[in-house]
Amino acid sequence: MNEIIRVEGITKVYRMDEVEVPALRGVDLTVEHGDFFAIVGPSGCGKSTLLHLLGCLDKPTDGRVFFNGEDVSALGDGALTRIRSRHIGLIFQTFNLMPTLSARENVALQLRLAGIKGAQAARMAEEALEKVELTARMKHLPKQLSGGER
Amino acid sequence: MIDIAWKNMWTRKTRTILTILGIAVALELVIMMTSIVDFTESGMQSELAKYSGAGQIYVRSQTTAGVAGQEFPPISSILREEEGRQIIDEVAGQVDMTLTTPILFYQLAPPPYPNAAPEALLVGLEVDKIGAYIGEEPVVKDGVVAFSDASAREVILGPMASSFFGEPAVGDEIQIIGEPLTVVGLIEGRSLEDRLTSNVVIVPLETAQSILGQSESISAVLITSVRLDNIGALAENIRASHPKVSVLTQEDIAENLDTILGQERMFFNMINYTVYIIAAVVVFIVMVMAVSERTKEIGTLRAIGASRWLVLRTIVLEAIMLGLMGSLLSIPIAYLIDMGIGYGLREVIGAWTLIQIVITAVVLSALAAAIPALRATRVNPIEALRYE
After folding, report:
1. Do B388 and A93 touch (CB under 8 A)?
2. Three-point CA angle B83, B85, B91, nearest 5°
3. What pLDDT score does B264 carry?
4. pLDDT mean across residues, chain A
5. ∠ CA B304-B307-B308 to the nearest 5 degrees?
6. Which residues of A touch B297 (CB under 8 A)?
7. pLDDT along chain B (388 residues), means of 10
8. Between chain A and chain B, how many beta carbons pairs sit less than 8 Å apart?
9. In 3D, which of B302, B225, B277 has the Cα closest to residue A110?
10. Which residues of B touch A58 (CB under 8 A)?
11. How near does any CA of chain B get to the CA of A50, in Å?
12. Residues of B engaging A, defined by a Cβ cutoff of 8 Å
């Protein structure tokens, strides 16, 4: 079975003061290994909300989210954090790199959060940066990198 | 995550340096205050040791309620010399007459801090009985511990008093209340903290009376009993025959020194606690600012898998490093200041006291960072990502 993420009838409703704002209504989706998805839609249609739920950053108001076959809809913060650290990679619109860490340290940070020891994480980060031809920029801080390099 | 905490501090150099300096200056004050207490305590203990077995009694005037029993030496006491000598005559058979003398005190320079001994204390006593007050075997730095006659215009100085008068040499003339006196002897305190001998400006009793314009009055009578087991009875006899005087036995002296020490310790501890709180508030404010500034970073960390515990640890670790560096820096600052003012406090303060101060600073820093750190753990990654 190649399924990684499956969502079943998820609904997300935000409560703002006394007003309920529905963001998602009955979304079903399955993501398998090798899939490449782009979620598009007008502003306010719930793209970010869906990504938050798929990324285990948030919980649905209703419906269920399965990650590697496990229902994560009811998991606590600690368990969701572990899933995020070990199985999910996030690239942000404005990159959100740690401004005090170098390029190599930023890459290694995610590995360290996944439980890989410092020296090994640094080596793996260097290898990854070599692949994208950023060896010369490894010790540079995010502010010293161009938009593309970030 | 010590590297992240360290880099957070290093990146915001100015704020980090100012915070560390703030903590260092505050704790330097704690070191100075603590060393003053240790300094005084050590001196008091040396005085207590001096009196144990000395069998001394001070006969002084009654003082107002609340003051009696607290002042030692009895500087504010005034007795008629005639009455003092009468008391000595009455007890002559039971006391060591070579160490029994009328004595006159006058504060020439106030204490450098509350409850301390005066910086310079004029002590007038009979010329051949100097040992009754400063001990029979004073350490002489220069000159002699003796006067040429009963009305000699001569003076013997203790080390702190000598410093007060600008470190004169033997043979130099110094002005005391407008009167020129020749320095004939310089003594060392029996120890640096010796509360009684350090500040003395010893002159013959007649000279002291002449300078102060009190030809017929003294402060007290210093009596040294021949037998230690007789002190209580001796004191009772004096009280019975002279109901208007107050009799201070060595036990009272010890109690007084202990009371003074207790008050002093309380006074300085109050300052110390306040300074600790100030240092903790500095750390608290800095960490609140740090967390507020880094909401987006903390949110990102949480989003990519940093646990709440890790975030909390990183913030607290940063505060601990600030506290540790500030407290370590406070030690050389305190030493430099002490060298500058020349109190010699650094000779008194022990390594364990410094370790305690560092540990207290580190613990307080961690506690001060607890609230901002808990706030950081509550940062919702989704909220933080909305900065996008």
Report:
1. yes
2. 105
3. 78
4. 90
5. 125
6. 96, 98-99
7. 80 87 88 80 66 73 57 86 93 89 94 78 93 82 91 93 93 94 87 70 95 92 83 88 87 76 83 87 86 84 90 90 92 87 71 89 89 86 70
8. 63
9. B302
10. 382
11. 12
12. 3-4, 7-8, 10-11, 296-297, 300-308, 310, 381-382, 385, 387-388
**How much is the pLDDT for B147?**
94
Kindly report each contact of residues B265-272 with a partner whose C-beta sits within 8 Å and lies 24 or more positions away, as own/partner.
B265/B37, B265/B41, B267/B114, B267/B115, B268/B33, B268/B34, B268/B36, B268/B37, B269/B37, B271/B29, B271/B33, B272/B30, B272/B33, B272/B34
* A81: nearest CB among B3, B8, B305: B305
- Helix residue spans in chain B (DSSP H): 2-11, 13-51, 81-91, 131-134, 159-164, 205-212, 231-241, 250-293, 295-303, 308-341, 351-377, 381-385
Listed in order, strand segments (DSSP E) in A2-148 are 3-16, 19-32, 62-67, 70-71
The encoded tokens of residue A118 equal 């410092």
Stretch A95-121: mean pLDDT: 90
CB of A133 within 8 Å of any CB in chain B? no
Distance CA B307, CA B12 (A): 24
Q: What distance lies between CA B204 and its chain's CA centroid?
A: 29
8 A C-beta contact, residue B327 and residue B361: yes
- Nearest partner of A83 among B378, B307, B312, judged by Cα: B307
Region A64-73 average pLDDT: 91
Tokens (6 digits) for B231: 């002190």
Q: What is the ipTM of this complex?
A: 0.87
**Strands B220-224 and B56-61: what pairing?**
antiparallel
Question: Helix, strand, coil shares of chain A as percentages rounded to 5?
Answer: 35, 25, 45
Q: Is B246 helix (H, G, I), strand (E, B) or coil?
A: strand
- Tell me the pTM: 0.65
Cα first-last separation, chain B:
26
Question: How many other C-beta atoms are found inside a 10 Å radius of the C-beta of residue B233?
Answer: 12
B183 beta partners = B155
A93: closest CA of chain B, how far (Å) = 7
Cβ neighbours of residue B271 under 8 Å, at least 6 residues apart?
B29, B33
Cα(A115)–Cα(A121) distance, integer angstroms: 9
Residues of A in contact with B302 (CB under 8 A): 81
